[in-house]
Design a protein that fits this description.
The strands form 3 sheets. The protein has a 6-stranded mixed sheet, sandwiched between helices. It has 2 domains: 203 residues, Rossmann fold, CATH 3.40.50.300; 73 residues, no CATH class. Strand 1 and strand 2 form a beta hairpin. The termini are far apart. The protein is of the alpha/beta class and 293 residues long.
Length: 293
């Protein structure tokens, strides 16, 4: 597997506070990768380290075989749409395209012009007068027209209404297929990832809890429900557990095709899977804190 992003023991500290610590992850090429986790998990910090906007405190990170932002050639390989889809309010749409052409040696003017026309954006309109969805589409256009090998998007649709979010993600999928991009999409909206991503990374407390092809992860995880007093079948690895007075429910990874007849096996959707790993990480953190008291 060729990695477009590889982090080893990566950490970033602000004063005494660690925003990211001991993060190790490989992100494969040729996929639309969903990076998901709770607020404060370190997603934005990881992506800013990948784009060279931040320098690591500890560990190392490589992107497309080089150090992030290490010169014009490396910068040209990566497109980035930040969380607030930044554009310049006082500049027109056309001004943004001229700026992009001046800053990016591989700028595809025809692609940018065509996308703007298909989106129905008036080149003479100032960005500050556009809707949130239109600003996000303009930012995506700028990212695509520089013709990157890797496109990084940090929660680009978090502030959009459902219709604008759907349109943005549909445009992203079309562009990814057309230009054969590797994409890393950070989001806390699992439904967005379910529609767009074929590879998933769950990041909690700056640690990767699970990573893999989405279809493989869903096929390999199961929900087992049975009596509270009945032993769980041996074999699958327990990801998370919940109990009532009479019933236990486990999310497990591994073969659950022939469990004890007392247990009922069921499939998971992507949200079930993500929440199970987040719940597990929270339980482990709680246990560790209690052990120090």
């Amino acid at each position: 597997m060729t990695a477009v992003l590889r982090a080893q023991g990566l950490g970033k500290r602000y004063g005494k506070r660690w925003a990211l610590r001991d993060c190790t992850v490989d992100i494969p090429e040729g996929h639309v990768v969903g990076l998901v986790g709770p607020n404060g998990a370190g997603k934005t910090t990881l992506l800013k380290l990948a784009t060279g906007l931040l320098e690591p405190t500890t560990g190392g990170i490589g992107v497309l075989g080089g150090r992030p932002a290490a010169g014009p050639a490396q910068l040209a390989k990566v497109g980035f749409v930040a969380q607030d889809t930044p554009v310049y309010a006082a500049l027109t749409v056309a001004d943004h395209l001229r700026l992009g052409a001046g800053l990016n040696p591989a700028w595809d003017a025809a692609l940018a012009k065509d996308r703007i026309a298909r989106l129905g954006l008036d080149p003479a309109h100032r960005a500050g007068k556009l809707s949130g969805g239109q600003r996000a589409q303009l930012a995506l256009t700028l990212g695509l027209a520089k013709r990157p090998e890797l496109l990084i998007l940090d929660e680009p649709v978090a502030a959009l209404d459902p219709l604008a979010r759907r349109e943005f993600l549909q445009n992203l999928m079309e562009a990814t297929a057309e230009h054969r991009l590797s994409v890393v999409l950070s989001s806390h909206l699992v439904s967005d990832l379910e529609r767009t991503c074929d590879y998933l990374i769950v990041l909690v407390d700056s640690r990767v809890q699970v990573a893999g092809r989405t279809e493989d992860l869903l096929a390999g995880h199961h929900r087992l429900t049975g009596p509270r007093d009945r032993a769980l079948p041996h074999g699958p690895r327990v990801v998370s557990a919940r109990h009532t007075d009479r019933q236990s429910t486990f999310i497990v990874y591994g073969d659950a095709s022939a469990p004890d007849p007392a247990w009922t096996a069921g499939r998971l959707n992507l949200e079930d899977l993500v929440l199970a790993y987040m719940d597990n990480a929270t339980a482990e953190r709680r246990t560790a804190l209690e052990a120090t008291r």
